[in-house]
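dumping this here before i forget
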Amino acid sequence: MATPSAAASRSTTPTVRDLLAAGHQSFSFEFFPPKDDEGEQVLWNSIRRLEGLSPTFVSVTYGAGGSHRNRTARVTRRIAAETSLTPVAHLTCVSATRSDVRQVVAQHVDDGVRNILALRGDPPGGPGSPWIATEGGYRYAVELVEDLQGLGDFSIGVAASPHLHPESPDLEHDARVLAAKVRAGADYAITDMFFERAAYVELVERAARHGADVPIIPGVMPLTNLGQIERFKLLSGAAVPGWLVDRLMVHADDKAAFRAAGMEAATVLAADLLAAGAPGLHFYTLNRSTVTGEIYRTLGLGPGVPVGSSGGAAPGSSAGSAPSGARP
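structure:
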């Protein structure tokens, strides 16, 4: 049974659907559930620092293979109860029956969480392994979106990919899948990480052709260390563009310079995405606040930024252009 404070939270916590409909750009941060108490403290330090930037919402992932589900629920609950932030709870089809998912959703309702990001999730065996649905569970994210319609008054987000999904035959198929999720009830989409403006613009155009007429928020993550380059390819199935690898590898022996170059490239991309009409930005923070905060402030972002405004100028950016040295 919901406590009085949780019941009050349900009535006052905004939905992402309503926030996007208000006509301002959305700026959001994504965290992942920590593996231990030390990691949880790092996460909460970041949450508290980024809270001062007044993001539109923050989201908390499930972890690889649907792991750390309980920590995700606990962190999301604390964000709803102890901060001024609007939390979005990730929900995946991985290693869960429909009954399991409904229990998690019931807990979110009890906690006053009104926003869910509905995802199929990565194969339980890890990237590159075949997707096998759990017996009694969901095969696809669209089924999860459909089910959520009868479980509460949620604002539902879904994933969109600017590059070819590893299991997809072509990009048009990806767009049709996104459109099916929108027809099932999705209010908006957040993209995977990518590094070139053209990939986002082309995704939005494909989605529109197939009837996916919801805001598509680009996901941005700066590459600030060498290990991220290979890990990105493993997790997303898309390689980091050669021009960006070349630019970063010049600083392979200088961690500070590598970080600065990665941050500048992400800042330029973010500014160009806003100039191209993106409805906002979703920052993959890796549970750290420093780089995200620096990019955010460099761009002059904050609450009340009208749609179509790119905030402050990013270093080296120009409206509609790719970073210097990038391929068209």
